[in-house]
Amino acid sequence: MKKKKKVLVTYNMFRSGYAELIEKYDVTFPPEGVESFTYDEVLRMIPEYDALQSMFNFPVDRRLMDAGINLKIISNYAVGYDNVDISYATQKGIQVTNTPDPVTEPTADQAMGLLLAVSRRISELDRRLRFGAVKVGLLDNLGHSLYGSTIGIIGMGRIGQALARRAVAAGMKVVYYNRHQVTREVEEKYGAKYLSLDELLCISDVVSINAPHTSETHHLIGERELSMMKSSSILINTARGPLVDEKALVEALRERKIWGAGLDVFEFGDYPSEELLKMDNVVLNPHTGTQTFEVRNEMAAYVSKNIIHFFEGGPVAKVNRID
Ligand code: GLV
Asked: Whose CA is closest to 254, among 228, 237, 274?
């Protein structure tokens, strides 16, 4: 009998999305009660495995790939893959895949949710009410209207477009900045206007970051960019923390150079800078853009399909081109 392929999954995710993978292959998950394998554990185990299913916060570096002497595919559980050394994987002929489809709508929901929460001060006023620290007057708790305002979307890919759809439904005008201008058809669908980054920053009431983190986008929004934004504007980041220079953002918020921010991701790991925790004009979430019961299972099924199709034929969401 042919030996089953061996797949190592780094995180103890719900099993239902993995049903097909488990049925076909020899799949190892962390033992019951253990949330995730550590890097060192994976390093020790990887020589045995044909496939690695990594999470977006699990570093897949040269050392791990060198140890993976049988490794043919890294199926990353995320649309973003800045945790994987892609050029080294390509050099080694290892296929890297991601999960673009399931994350699009929930991440756009998260961006819209943060935007509403910041613009209407929903989290802040909820806190104030609970702690008896609110004055209830007609002019005491003012926010900003979305209707008629302009959203500047940085990164007009799938998530950017899903956000544009929500923004249009809220009566907002859409401008965008992207590596390339999108098709006329897409622009017309959202009435979206292509601008340079600087132009976008100057005219937008809301700036949302929906681009991947690469060496080119690192600190895309820093002191210079923040100083170009309107003092009434809001910055939303549901992409990756290091696209924003967090120290510069803290300063801009403290000095009221911008009005507020909604952040699902942070520059220095899983937690925001201390200063952000003390600010009322910021809404913070612990990277929950895709954290719904439904999407966690859809992503598990997607990473599984990427592995099964890679070995058996079928569509695979490839991140790198290998020969
Ligand atoms: C989540 O952050 C993702 O990249 O899918």
From this structure: 274
